[in-house]
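Quick board copy: two proteins, each given as sequence then C-alpha cells.
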Amino acid sequence: MKVHLISGACGFVGRNMVRRLIDTTGDLLFMVDDLSIGTHPSAWMEYNTSRKLEDVEIIGEQERIYFWKGDFRDLLFRLRENPYYIQEKYGLAFDHFSDVFHFAAIVGGRAKIEGDPMAVALDLSIDAEFFYWICQHRPERVLYPSSSAAYPINLQSPSGAIALKESDIDFGSNLGVPDMTYGWSKLTGEFLARIAATHYGIPVVCIRPFSGYGEDQDLSYPVPAIAARAARREDPFEVWGTGKQGRDFVHIDDVIDLIFILMDNVSDGSAYNIGSGKLTSFLDLIGIFTGFAGYSPEIRPLTDKPVGVHSRYSDMSLVWDRFRWKPGISLEEGMRRVYDAALNQI
C-alpha cells in the first residue's frame, strides 16, 4: 500500500486534496495540521475517528487515514532525529512516503498578508525544514504549492498589468519584487524546490495557483465572504478599495485536477500556473452574486482597506501547450456553487 503525507491537510486546499485521495485511491494518508486555521476532520469527513493511537487519530473503519495534530515543524524534527519515527511510533510498515503534498503554511486574506507580514514570514522556516527533510527522506514525488504572489508586483499595476506567464519569474536574471513577505517566502520555496530537484534528485513540481475558491473556503477570503453577504442581501454592499481591482478565479476542483497532471509529468522543480486566464474585478464578482440573489444594491467603496495589487491574472498558454488542460468549471457555474453553499448557511 502506498502511503502519502499531506501537511496542512485541514486547510482549504489540503482537505480538498484529502477528499480526492480518499475518493480515487485506496492508499494510506498521513495528515498533519495544527488546526490554527484548518478545520478538524470530523467537520468535513464522512468518517468518524475509529480509535486513537497515542497522539494520532485513526479515522474510518478501514483505518487508512491518520491525523496528527501539531506543528509540522515538530514532526519534521522528530523525523530528522529518527527517519523511521512514524513507522515505529504507529506501527506502519512502509519504507518511504510515495507522494508528499506540502500545504502547511501561514496563510490568510489580504488583511493577514499586509496586517501581520512577519507572521506570514514564518513560512520561510516551515519550508526550510521541509526541503531539508525531503532531501534526506527521498519520497517518490513532492508537490510544493507556491503562489501567484511570487510574481513581480510591477507587472500587476493599473497601468502595466499583464497576463502573468511562468517565464516572468527567472531565477537566472532579475526576479523583480514579489507581493509582501508571503510572495518572498513562496519565491524562496520555489528556489529550494529547484535545488532539491537539481542537486539531490528529488522529484518536485511547484504550482502557482491564482485565486482558488470553492464551497468550503473560509470567510476570510473574498469569494465566500461576498457570496455570504449577497445571500443575506446586504445593501449597501461594501467593497474593499474601489472594487475595480481584479483577480483570476479558479475552482478548487480544477486546481486539484491540474495538480495531479503536473505531478505525473513534471519532476525538475519547475513551476506552473493554475488559473483560468481571465481577469474578473471584484465589482464584477459582486454583480454575479447579487444577480443570483436577485437585487441591485448600492456599492460602498472602502478605500481605507488593504487591496493588494491592482490586477493579477494568469497566462495559461504553457499549460495548454504542454498538457492540453483548461478549467472545466466556468466562473458562472463555480460561483453558483459557492452562492448555493452560502444560502445553506443562513
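And the next:
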Amino acid sequence: MSGPSRKTLLANVVCLGALGWIYGGDLSDALRARTAEVSALMSPPSTVRTSVVLGLAGVGLAVFTAGLLRKKPEDFKGYRLLPILLVLALFVDLVLAEGRTPLDSPDLAAVALQRFQGEAQKRATVAAVPARAEELQPLVDALGSPPYLERGLAVPAYALQVRTGCQGPVRDAPGTRPGTLIYCVSPDGKQAWVTLVGLPAEVRFGAPAVLSQRGEPRVAIVRAQLPEEEEKGAPPGIDLEDSLVDGGEAVFPSP
C-alpha cells in the first residue's frame, strides 16, 4: 500500500485550507461582533453553523491523517471527506444567501446617504434648504435599517441630528450611535451637508465614526434651488464641489 496520490493529497490540503479560511473567519467575525462597538455587518455569521462545519472538518482531517499514516490506498473513502464537506458547506451557504443583497455595509450606507440627499433636495426652495427635523424625519424613517451591528445586535433604524450654523460637513462625531445622519445647515440656510455615522469603509470593527473612504468623509450636499430652475419647473440640480463621487456626494479634502 502506497497511500494517496499527490493529487489527492493536494486536494485535501486545499479543501482544509479553504474550510479554515472561510468558516474560521466567519466564526472569528461572529465572536468579535459581540464585543465590538460597531461592526460593518448586516447580521452576524451563525456561530452554530460555522462551529459545526469546523468540527466536521476536524473529523475529516483526523480520518484523512489516519489513512495517510496507515498508507491506505487511493480508493480509501476517508480521502474524500474534506472535499465533500467543502462542496456541501458552500452549497448550503449559496442557498442561505439567496435573496440577500450583494452590496456590503459601506455600499449600503452610501446608498442610504444618497437617497436621503435626493429626497431632501426635492424639498429645497429658492429661499432655503429644509432645516426642520419634523420635515426631515419621514425621509429618515423611509431608509429602513442601517447596515451595522452595535455590540452584536442590529441597529433598528436610522436616526437624525439637525445642526445649524455650520461652515462645512461634520468630520467627527464621538459618542454618536451608528446609523445617525448628521444634517448640518449653513448659516444662510441655503446649503446643508449630510454625513452618516458608521465606520470608515476600510474598517469592519471599531468605534462609531463618520462614514469615509480613504480618510475622506462621504458627504452629500443639499442646496437651495436656483430661481430659473423653479420658474421653468426643472428638476432640482445637484451642484457638487471638489472631488465628485456620485449621486450628490462629494469628498472634502482634509485641511
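Board note added afterward: Helices lie at 6-35, 47-69, 81-97, 105-122, 133-141, 227-232.
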